[in-house]
Specification:
The protein is an alpha+beta fold. The chain is built from 12 helices and 10 strands. 34% of the residues lie in helices and 16% in strands. The structure holds citrulline.
């Protein structure tokens, strides 16, 4: 019998794909760092509204528990015929989408990285988090030019300074109940912090859902500019840090929705006309494989007709292709908004 009872109302991918047979094959396995199936699916067991419901505790989790991770990954990253990742981080020169700034309010592109040889955030001890934070601070201090900035430790930085960062959204909150149930919030805010470039266009979150979330952001519709900054940051950090990587799954992240490029590239865009004709917007985003989130992020409402539109697929597609597809999709959306 399957020892894990998912809530009746749960529609998570892990519930769908963790058959009794797979469960029996995996329930007694452990990765070298001691991560188990039970820990991996704990968030999905606790949260009936989980969409995915599984997290990786280390790089090896994707191999050890592949009979459940693979079907979840294949279904989420719809359209991937075979699992094979090809990275292509190179600078682009695309036309600015909305030069008059009528629709696009800002652009934000993030990638996630975990360091090779360390467990992932849902399966880390405090001393590992500390060691990791030190290593990352060292690497961040080597960033040059417009990437130069300060690291603000949530434990040690001046409280007033932290409040200012929070007000301006240069900050991350303690993880939600999905992350909490997975163990990602352990010891928060210890060993957590944010690096912010002096020009405030590069931000790096340390020890959030992944060891690193590298974020390039700006109030612009110039996708290339924001993307190129991210390329420079990731290539510089990769000179001092070795990342968890697999030739099949690409970059390895805590949540299987992020593997591959681990990239979410998106804009905040105000669409007053399309808000009244959402079907047209949904048709374009579906056709371009884009995702719509609420104004304040995942699982939030649309306020003031401001949509957060980003790529859905992160695996089986390269980083540059994600940006090019997003660019094409946004052009189509702006054209539709203008024509109503
Ligand atoms: C869940 O399973 O719903 C959460 N662990 C969050 C999954 C990641 N986000 C997403 O699918 N958009």
């Amino acid at each position: 019998m399957n020892p894990f009872i998912f809530p009746k109302e749960s529609n998570s991918l892990v519930k769908k794909h963790l058959s009794q047979k797979i469960c029996q094959a995996l329930e007694h396995l452990k990765t070298d760092s001691g991560f188990t199936l039970e820990k991996a699916i704990h968030s999905g067991l606790k949260n009936p509204d989980s969409a995915i419901g599984i997290y990786a505790g280390d790089a090896q989790s994707y191999q050890t528990f592949s009979p459940v991770f693979d079907p979840v990954i294949l279904e989420y990253h719809g359209g991937v015929e075979n699992l094979k990742h090809k990275s292509d981080i190179r600078e682009l020169d695309l036309p600015v989408l909305d030069p008059e700034g009528k629709y696009i309010l800002s652009t934000r592109i993030r990638i996630a990285r975990n360091l090779k040889g360390f467990s992932f955030p849902c399966h880390m001890t405090l001393s590992h988090r500390r060691e990791l934070e030190k290593k990352i601070i060292m690497a961040l201090s080597c960033l040059k030019g417009n990437l130069k900035g300060n690291y603000y430790s949530f434990e040690h930085a001046d409280k007033k300074e932290l409040k200012q960062l929070e007000t301006k959204n240069f900050w991350f909150q303690k993880g939600d109940r999905f992350q909490d149930a997975a163990g990602i919030n352990s010891d928060f805010p210890k060993c957590r912090g944010v690096y912010l470039s002096f020009d405030k266009q590069l931000m790096v979150w340390v020890n959030e859902e992944d060891h690193l979330r590298i974020i390039s952001l700006e109030k612009t519709s110039d996708l290339s500019k924001v993307y190129n900054r991210l390329c420079q940051a990731i290539l510089s950090l990769n000179q001092t840090l070795a990342f968890a990587w697999d030739k099949t799954y690409g970059h390895l992240t805590s949540c299987p929705t992020n593997i591959g490029t681990s990239m979410r590239a998106g804009v905040h865009i105000q669409l007053e006309k399309l808000e009244q004709k959402k079907e047209i917007l949904f048709n374009i985003t579906r056709a371009c494989n884009l995702q719509i989130r609420g104004t304040c992020g995942e699982k939030t409402k649309i306020e003031n007709a401001v949509f957060d539109i980003s790529n859905r697929q992160r695996l089986g597609i390269s980083e540059s292709r994600i940006i090019q597809n997003l660019h094409a999709g946004l052009l189509a959306i702006i054209k539709a908004e203008k024509s109503i």
